[in-house]
Design a protein that fits this description.
Helix content is about 30%, strand content about 20%. By secondary structure, the chain is of the alpha/beta class. A hairpin with a 6-residue loop joins strand 2 and strand 3. The chain starts with 5 loop residues before the first strand and ends in a 7-residue tail after the last helix. Bound molecules: threonylcarbamoyladenylate (TXA) and magnesium ion.
């Protein structure tokens, strides 16, 4: 499809952005909207042909279901067969915020949204403009990350433009997203609930509110339930090589070796010993704290791609708290020979 993609600032063009976005949604078009995690590709969740177009422009397999964004737990009721008490408990602690819950879908939810499943993923994002939009729209807005399938999720409006210029109607620009990694997806149709994807809410935070929580890895068969985990994700075009935390010798060795082979390299580290390491012409990025590392990771991937880097050398972080989410994304980005959908 060839069309003009408008970009409006939700800060300086707030009212116009709201009016235009509502008009696009109501006529079955596609917007890109900001959330606290990453930008989403939005369409009216109750309009099957609009949702279908979201799958098409993203190049997303039809069996990989979409998250429905709503303004509040109250608005979530319309999409769920029933909301168990634990949904209200979770909503009270984490909504608006980077948690998505998977519940039994209401019969009225188009099955194109759920990839044919009888469950639906719901979330209330923590982004002021988008909450106003959801409130005014009244219904649900589907929101897969606004990237071509397999590419790193967008944390800036320009990332969305890179992937979808001329293919969607409107981009709502709110600057860089705050969290930078996607929401945690929690299946609450099972007891205890299962984390299908780690994200902005950590496992410990969930445990402190609802007690027992499983991770998908702990029960292999449950992988069936989280279609998104079957696909290669978050990957830059460059080859990602992970280096153990603080292993300066190995980093030095990999830098020298790849430079000798004529490779263009970018390095991303966080430990103090890597500061001012002086790798000459190599691009070095340093993110001293975990939140900044998370916020800037996908931006690092995309800018390295734009500059034609061959190799990205990334220092691992400790596998705890938000670090576990970062490591999940890093491992996927470093995986090879997976289907690149
Ligand atoms: O932070 C986020 O979650 C962002 C922003 C835009 O909200 N959205 C996002 O959507 O990351 P997406 O489509 O890129 O990832 C959604 C994940 C996928 O792994 C998908 O398989 C899973 O949620 N999912 C959606 N509905 C599901 C369902 N009914 N059962 C199991 N997994 C589901
Ligand atoms: Mg995605």
């Amino acid at each position: 499809m060839n069309q003009q993609t408008a970009i409006l600032s939700v800060v300086t063009q707030h009212d116009e952005a709201l009016t235009r976005a509502l008009a696009v949604l109501r006529r079955g078009g596609i917007i890109a909207f900001p959330t606290e995690t990453v930008y989403g590709l939005g369409a009216d969740a109750m309009n099957p042909s609009a949702v279908q177009r979201v799958f098409e422009v993203k190049g997303r397999p039809p069996t990989n279901p979409l998250i429905v964004h709503v303004a509040s737990i109250d608005r979530a009721r319309a999409f769920a067969k029933n909301l168990p008490p634990i949904a209200f408990q979770l909503a009270e602690h984490f909504w608006p915020g980077p948690l998505t819950i998977v519940v039994e879908a209401h019969d009225s939810v188009p099955r194109v949204v759920t990839g044919g499943l009888d469950t639906v993923a719901l979330r209330v994002p923590k982004q002021e403009f988008t909450l106003r939009l959801l409130e005014s729209f009244g219904g649900g807005i589907v929101g897969p990350s606004a990237n071509i399938s397999g590419r790193p999720s967008p944390t800036l409006a320009e990332h969305v433009l890179e992937d979808f210029e001329g293919k969607i109607d409107l981009i709502l620009d709110a600057g860089q997203t705050h969290v930078g990694l996607e929401s945690t997806v929690l299946d609450i149709t099972v007891e205890p609930p299962v984390i299908l994807r780690l994200g902005g809410v950590t496992k410990d935070e969930l445990i402190s509110v609802i007690g027992s929580v499983n991770s998908v890895g702990e029960r292999e068969s449950l992988k069936q339930r989280s279609p998104g985990t079957r696909f290669r994700h978050y990957a830059p075009r460059a080859t990602v090589i992970l280096v153990e935390e603080g292993n300066v010798e190995r980093m030095d060795m990999l830098v020298q070796e790849n430079l000798r082979n004529g490779k263009k390299i970018a390095v991303l580290t966080h430990s103090p010993m890597f500061m001012n390491r002086g790798y000459g012409e190599v691009q070095q990025h340093f993110q001293g704290d975990l939140r900044a590392f998370a916020r800037n990771l996908f931006k690092f991937f995309r800018s390295a791609d734009r500059e034609g880097c061959d190799i990205l050398l990334v220092e691992k972080v400790s596998d705890e708290g938000l670090g576990a989410t970062i490591m999940d994304r890093l491992r996927r980005a470093a995986e090879k020979n997976h289907a690149t959908t």
